[in-house]
Amino acid sequence: MRYILSTGTWAMLFGTALLTIGCTKEEEETPSGPTGGTWSLNTVQNGNVVTVKDSTNQNFTFTNDRTWLLWGFVKVQNGATLTIEPGTIIKGDKATKATLVIERGAKIIAEGTAAQPIVFTSNEPPGQRNYGDWGGLIICGKAPNNAGANVLLEGGTGATFGGSLSDDNSGILRYVRIEFPGIAYQVNNEINGLTLGAVGSGTTMDHIQVSYSGDDSYEWFGGSVNASHLVAFRGWDDDFDTDNGYAGRVQFGVALRDPAIADPSGSNGVESDNDASGSSSAPVTSPIFSNISLYGPLTVDPNTGNMNTLFKRGAHLRRNTRLSLYNSVIAGWPTDLLLDGGPTGDNVDAGLLQVRNTHLAAWGTIALDTVSGAGFDPIAWFGTTGWGNAINSDLSSLGLPTPFSLAVPSFRPNGGSALLSGADFSSTNLVNPFFTPVSYKGAFGGEDWTSGWCNWDPQNTVY
């Protein structure tokens, strides 16, 4: 069944100046709003929680001296900017499947710090939070995609994306955590932890953690936004999903899975399609990923006899995608890399889909495979002299601190690990100011860039 959440008239806070000191529990006030919208304020818990509803076309700020509770589909409309102060807590209502939607032409300026990350999380009490407690964060832009100039985003929010501005600017996401989001209403009608519809390269995205998402942790539908330092933690479906002509760059990303949790459709680390039919519609999905670590369930629980069979591939490249992967590691999946379909195989043959300086270490005997007419020898291709790829016989040969702990994961390779050297940024795909040339493969060298701002136990955190 498809669930569509309805919204009524506008109800939001405009600035902190409208707050009245001394509001008591469950006291309401409705101040006069700016031209173009009706605004109301509902404060609870002695004025510390502000409930936010519906839509606005005016600029406003979520301040860090209060907790902000999203109710239903909260939309920031064309021309408006939502600013969120460092250290701010935003919660999503479970009953209304609250979702924050940044529409085309709007902006979100959520610029936290390592000491004061911005947190989007469940409104449920500690110990009672779960996958899909609320919808998540959706950002729509005006960048190119291959589905059209005015595409209705899945998930029932009514938001649209698309355009021709590759450098479109939807704002800043920096040091942001998104916890317990993600709603799969039905197949191909989902809200992900962070959904990006045709978001342009003028947008800044770095240091983001999506945890316990009830669908994909991150999904790009077209667009050209670049992103770095991304964490997908204990997701349900795919960790990083790219579709509909996404052509951005991603560097330093890590995914770590709960071995007990996977999606009935099959969970992957990376999933990439040009579109649902595998057509040649332009722009073709062609993101460039470097320094990615995709850790499957075996990296947490080596007991393969009890492994969840719903886990599938570390990277499933299919339906005419041209995604390229460099300087990375995929470990602990039934199949680490699957190249799927004739069009995908053609892209491999033409050098439009590349995998270089990457290590694979599967839990079974199939680290690399092809299906559905890809039509080439994947082992010979992957092992081409000069490409720097390697298939490791087991996880221990990678020199990782395995098995990983879900409570306190440590991602930095042990001394002497083959991952600490051998990265190569000479490919023309990587000759771009966005990429930071480093010597190591995977997301981590000697520095743990998750330290201080990531949370590995949001279930029990008191917000």
* CATH fold type: Pectate Lyase C-like
Instruction: Please state the second-level CATH architecture.
Output: 3 Solenoid
**Mean pLDDT over the residues:** 89
Label the structural class. Answer: mainly beta
SS element count, helices: 2
Oligomer: single chain
- Percent range of helical residues: under 10%
- Summarize the biggest pleated sheet: 28 strands, mixed
Distance between the termini: 33 Å
Note down, in words, how this protein is organized.
This protein is mostly beta strands and 463 residues long. The protein has one domain: 3 Solenoid (Pectate Lyase C-like). The chain contains two helices and 32 strands. The strands form three sheets. The protein has a 28-stranded mixed beta sheet that branches. Strand 12 and strand 13 form a beta hairpin. The longest helix has 8 residues. The protein is globular. The chain starts with 27 loop residues before the first strand and ends in a 72-residue tail after the last strand. The N terminus is likely disordered.
Structure at a glance:
This protein is mainly β and 463 residues long. Helix content is 3%, strand content 33%.
Question: What are the SSEs and their pairings?
Answer:
Blueprint: E1 28-29, E2 41-44, E3 49-56, E4 60-62, E5 67-76, E6 81-84, E7 89-92, E8 99-102, E9 107-111, E10 118-122, E11 136-140, E12 151-152, E13 160-161, E14 171-179, E15 183-186, E16 189-191, E17 194-197, E18 204-211, E19 218-221, E20 227-233, E21 240-243, E22 249-256, E23 270-272, E24 288-295, E25 313-318, E26 324-326, E27 329-331, E28 335-340, H1 342-349, E29 355-356, E30 359-361, E31 366-371, H2 378-382, E32 390-391
